[in-house]
Amino acid sequence: RAKESGNSYRLFDPQMDSEAFDKMAMEHDLRKALERGEFIVYYQPYVDFRTRRIVGAEALIRWQHPERGLVPPLQFIPFAEETGLIVPIGDWVLRTACAQGKQWQEQGFPLRIGVNLSSRQFQQEDLVEMVQAALQETGLEPEHLELEITESMTMDVERSNEMLTKLKQLGVRIGMDDFGTGYSSLSYLQKFPLDRLKIDQSFVRDTHMLTHESAIVPTIISMAHNLKLHVTAEGVETPEQFAFLDAQLCDEAQGYLFSQPVPAEQFSKLLEERMTH
Ligand code: C2E
Ligand code: CA
Ligand code: CA
Ligand code: CA
Fold first, then answer.
1. What positions does the domain EAL occupy (predicted)?
2. 0.90 exceeded by the pTM?
3. d(CA 71, CA 117)
4. Which residues sit opposite 263 in a β-bridge?
5. What HEC string does 179-215 produce?
6. Ligand 1 site: residues with CB under 6 angstroms?
7. Which residues, in sequence order, are CB contacts of 118 under 8 Å at separation 6+?
């Protein structure tokens, strides 16, 4: 049985419904994709409100599927998370993004590179070693790397604090992603050695109107600043949103107003345009 290729025998398991079979097929495909190098990292700029310059890039994975074309992360990251494949995939993203960051730095663009961590990675005992290895391998200085975590990953406050402290000792930055969608409170945030809050795009979307969400944003920004955290607004799509956030002293913006996530070569062109215009 162990010698059989693929998972064909399981087709006859009466317990297995089609959903479970889909998941197995997906796991198989993801494993192959990693081996074949079908994943690709796109980059989306972080723009500084004061200088209007690109100061960083978020690494966002895509799957260049041979038949299905470019597959967005939300269609496969949850499966990768479920199966644990997110650990090697996440490690690949980390090393790829650090290498790219180093290359841009050598070209005269010292950007901060944001890399998303999944909760599975955050639970890995050797996460710190993995991050350290990626930095050493690529030569990227730790202060140019920012790891993005989410509130739901930090339920175990004591353990999270321990892990974040170790990561901070490496010299990397920590950003709290999708802020406002979880359960965090001010006191809770103070417990962690964070550098940045990223305001979730659901709050940014309505900032041009006088809605509940738009009232929340200034509060988050001033709270974050009181805690000495930098603030990035996600999902900035319109000049009105940009102006509103600017007036609220938000530090950085990310969103389609500047650029969608793009392949590294295209991002390099954005960097060059911003240098000469
Ligand atoms: P995220 O970390 O919150 O990333 C921001 C998402 O918002 C990206 O979607 C980006 O394309 C999208 N976005 C940026 N600006 C705008 C805008 O102006 N309007 C709108 N409507 N959307 C905007 P994407 O690339 O599809 O990624 C979705 C999620 O997948 C990410 O959300 C992140 O949670 C996850 N993800 C992506 N890459 C990785 C990775 O390498 N590892 C892990 N663990 N998760 C990843
Ligand atoms: Ca993110
Ligand atoms: Ca986010
Ligand atoms: Ca999000």
1. 23-275
2. yes
3. 19
4. 42
5. ECCCCCCHHHHHHCCCCEEEECHHHHCCCCCCCHHHH
6. 44, 59-61, 72-74, 77, 86, 90, 93, 116, 118, 177-178, 201, 234-237, 254-256, 261
7. 77, 80, 81, 86, 90, 153
